[in-house]
Amino acid sequence: MTEQPYTPISQVSKDANNMVAPTTDTKKIKQTAPDTPNPIFTKVQQNCRISAEQLKRYSDPDELPTDTRTAPDLDVGFGQQRALKALHTALDIKASGYHVFAAGENGLGKRTVISRLLTRIAADAPTPDDWVYVHNFTDPRTPLALRLPADQASLLQQQVNNLWQQAKKRLSQRFRSDQYQSKIEAIKNSTHQKESHAYDALNAEGKQYDLALTFRSFDNKAVFVHPSQLPTESNSDDDKQIKIPSNHKDSERLNDSEKVNILSNKDNERKENQDSTYGNNEYEAELNNFVQKNHMQKRLSQLTIALEQLEDEANDEIEALHRSIAQRALQPLFTPIYEQFATHPLVVAYLKAVFDDMVTHVERIVNGDDEEFVTAVLATTPSRYAVNVIVSDTPDSGAPVVFEDLPTHLNLLGHVEQITQLGTVTTDVSMIRAGALHRANGGYLLLEASHVLEHPYAWQGLKRALQSRKIKLSSLEQMLTLTGSLSLSPAPIDLDIKVILLGEADLYYELLELEPEFDAVFKVRADFHDDVPRTIEHELALVAKMADIIDYADLYPFDSSAQATLLEHLSLQAEEQDRLSLHSDLLIKLLHESNRHARLNNETMVTADHVTQAIDDMDERSGYLRDLYWDELKNGQQLIQTQGDAIGQVNALTVVSYADSEFGMPARLTAVIQPNIGTGEILDIERDVDLGGSLHAKGMLIMTSYLRALFSQHHALNFSASLAFEQSYAQIDGDSATVSEGCALLSALANVPINQSLAITGSMNQLGEVQAVGGINAKIAGFFDACREQELTGDQGVVIPMANVKQLMLRDDIIDAVNRGKFHIYGVYTLSEALTLMTGLPIDTMNKKGRYRKDTLFGKVLSRLMLWDENQESTDDIDDEKSKKKAKKKRKEKRQKKEDKRIKEKRKGEKSNERNSGESNKQSDAKPIDDTLNDSQTTAIDEDDN
């Protein structure tokens, strides 16, 4: 008989107390099991049991301050000496590229530590210079950047504002004074007199040719006409005076082709019947008069040009008067400012440019009809004379320390604002806005690396500024839209800064790989630790950190018991008895919530009970998914067996992590064997359906290699197997189930039951050594809660790697159950120890011949392998006998066919020899043939029977 493989238990029943009742197969197994434990099992159990004292490390309240008010002073660099050393190295080197990437998990308080350190260093550093942007009178599109000592920028801005107010007032007074008006009238009168004299002289010259100078009424244009064409009310030609209108500007010359008939008053009454001789004389006189008039008209054109020059000279004289008045009015205002900024040549040059511009445009300033010289909205001076203070610091205030929480391209490098009026977009020097690099120039700038990478062009702009060591404002709109819109291009500002990027280590490695120039810009990496060794000195330092947070948040003081409870919880977060977590966010949350419970209880001192309540509240808030799982366990939807025995079935310990929720839970792991199929292949169902991660697959392959190395030297692996986590529908990763998978598989191979009262976790290497795993406290708590739901029997417990014992920081209720013998925790070094605890059998004891004893687990595995092989051989023998009989039968049938053919040929020969024989003879000959066939057939069946 071929032995059938054992099928894992799939049907369970529960009584009224939710106790798991073993199936029929399980009852048979328990009945056949020995009543007395194996001595090897007893010895292993004693050696591997973990005492209650090893399950948690407590802090002694007597070694801590009475309350946080008496705590020692806080050391800013507590626990982060490596990071601070890297920071000091970067700050001491002034070369390009020595900026810092502070790597560490979120919540460690990196920004707080660095800010406090930089604040101390910056307090003794020199105060950086001020920077202002002013109008460039030579190239208005490129504003000038002026550098001044600390606090001088505001002073310059104030002085220029006052200068504008005084200048406008004084100029208005000067240009409205009687003295100015009299000078202007004198210039105008002098010019008018010169024009009158010129017209009089030209008129006198015209009289010689019997021509008079007059102005046409419809266009006020000067022309020469015959005296008879003058208005009738005018005086005689000798007494007439030429009147020059005040608004006369110029005169036009007559067209040379124009023919003008000039007739004098004396010849108006000429007769039409004059003879031809007299007519010829008259024509010559008229022609002569026309030539003279044309000559005088040319003289008039020359006079017009001269008069225009005269007017230009008058205008120049007026402008010179304006400049002279402006210079005399403004010089006393500018002189004190020149002297005040005499040590800054660029500032003095700018002030002189302002002086020259005011003198040049004094008329526009006084008239106030030009937008460039009108005070802008929300400003005290026109944008043309505005001093835009980009950055200004108080003297002796040290270097700036700036943290930019929104590091966009505009917020980092600054930008130029624009204003839209009636559809027109305008900007000026007063709309230049500073960025974080401007504010931190000469000091230190802190940035979150992930925030910088979130915003377009922010990283490129920061990198360009740090490499060039200059802050150059650029239009982000032009880069995004690729348009050529006109905008200001301010002059770049020199940059002297140290930038510290804050981020996680994974982000640092990604930038190092994907950004070729990252290492050239951020040459220093400062690693922040997650925890510190748990010594009394570090405990006191953490109490000082608590006191600092309490003072800052104005919380109640914490007594020594509360401090001890907090330190124990920090060790739990560090998952190490001898380590303390440095996560500031968690500590701040605990302090605030503990303070709340003290306030609700009307107490002014926070105690251990308040801290415990706060921890329980936080655990309850994040335990929604865990409660759903326990509800399924109570309702029987989750099949977990914490009592009895089962073959090929193990309670594995897992950790479920989702967002900020993390809890442990047991999971049923089953193994199924298919004998005589395959060569030791193990099917990982989780991996094949893409629910298992790469680390889980690695653990499975390690376990497979271990089993092959273990048994292949003794016997061929003539089986295949499959492993699966039952009722698992989420992603599984990690190699912490390797030991439990090995236990389930060996149990199924040996057909040996596993104690379901024990759960197991642990990683394993190819040598069978058990290695440490993560989340050990949550895993133990998860199985303890499951056992408590199904009643603690005193036999339940967990098997963990011995390397994890130092990481145990269990709950007090679990420790109490261990003390009372209701729950047990075992630590193992090898897979053999784990199998002994789970099965109660010796694992790999050998006899004198170097073979595994039959009563050991490995011996049972080899026995089953050989049994499967024997069954396979017997099956093969039966198959060989059947094939031999079939071949023999085929040979006989072939011989029979040959014999039939021979007899048929013989009959044909006899028919040819006995042609004259009758039909009766043929019948008599046929009977022996039939008898022969019957005899041959009988012989074949007999042989076949034999």
Topology:
Elements: E1 13-14, E2 20-21, H1 24-32, H2 39-48, H3 81-92, E3 100-103, H4 110-123, E4 130-134, E5 144-148, H5 152-175, H6 178-207, E6 212-215, E7 222-225, H7 276-340, H8 345-360, H9 362-367, E8 387-391, E9 401-404, H10 409-413, E10 415-416, E11 419-421, E12 424-426, E13 432-433, H11 436-439, E14 444-448, H12 449-454, H13 458-468, E15 470-471, H14 476-481, E16 493-494, E17 498-503, H15 505-514, H16 518-521, E18 524-527, E19 531-533, H17 536-553, H18 560-574, E20 579-581, H19 584-600, H20 608-621, H21 624-634, E21 645-647, E22 649-658, E23 661-675, E24 681-684, H22 685-688, H23 694-711, E25 719-725, H24 738-750, E26 753-755, E27 758-760, E28 763-764, E29 770-771, H25 776-789, E30 797-801, H26 812-819, E31 824-828, H27 831-839, H28 857-913, H29 919-945
Parallel strand pairs: 3-17, 3-18, 9-14, 14-17, 22-27, 24-25, 27-30, 30-31
Antiparallel strand pairs: 1-2, 4-5, 4-8, 6-7, 10-13, 11-12, 15-16, 19-20, 21-26, 22-23, 23-25, 28-29
Helix pairs in contact: 5-7, 6-7, 7-8, 17-19, 18-20, 19-20, 23-24, 24-27, 24-28, 28-29
GO molecular function, one term: ATP binding
Catalytic activity: Hydrolysis of proteins in presence of ATP
Active site: 736, 779
